Amino acid sequence: RVHGETLGSGRKGAKMLKSLIVLAACVVACHCRIEELLPYNLTAALMFHAEDLNQDGAITIDELEKEFAQYDSNHNGMVSRHEYTEYICHAEPILYNLAHYLYDDYDANGDHHLRKADYDAFFHRLDKDNDGLVTPEEYVEVWEGLFVKYEYVDVHSQTHLHGTSLCH
User: Does 137 or 34 have the greater pLDDT score?
Assistant: First the structure.
């Protein structure tokens, strides 16, 4: 629930929410500014519902790892910056201009590759009370902070190529 309204339930509801987010993102066609994600708490709440794969009101480490596994297009167990930004370009284009900054945030050890240890570190960052479950409140708090953190950074240059991309 966000502001007292049910956003959807079950897998069908999650897919519908993700489709709505992607549809809204297509309207801005990869050229959004961070202000277009306002209000940040609502954007983060919608993201939570899309990532809560079983729609039980909490995200587990397995759910987060499944979400991150989608980024690994060549299935080698690690995600390159190019794989991540391409995934974001196609699946969540409204976040594309933040993709490089988010990648760096996820890369806990700074080795320029995302691996299971990086996802686990991000999960523990989300799981504020260390109970093994990320609640909507915990998730929204972290994501609001990330959005605020990147509010005044320059968007990633659309001409800086990392390979062939529809977002560049």
Answer: 137
pLDDT on residue 32: 55
Contacts 24+ apart (CB under 8 A), 145-152: 146/102, 146/105, 147/34, 147/37, 147/40, 147/43, 147/44, 148/40, 150/34, 150/98, 150/101, 151/34, 151/35
Mean pLDDT of the chain: 82
Q: Which residues contact 41 (CB under 8 A, 6 or more apart)?
A: 140, 144
- Partners of 88 in the β-ladder: none
CA distances from 45 to 15, 18, 115, 143 (A): 15, 12, 25, 9
Buried b (16+ CB within 10 A) or exposed e, 138-161: bbbebbbebbeebeeeeebeeeee
pLDDT digits (tens, 9 = 90+) for 84-94: 999 999 998 88
Q: What is the pTM of this model?
A: 0.76
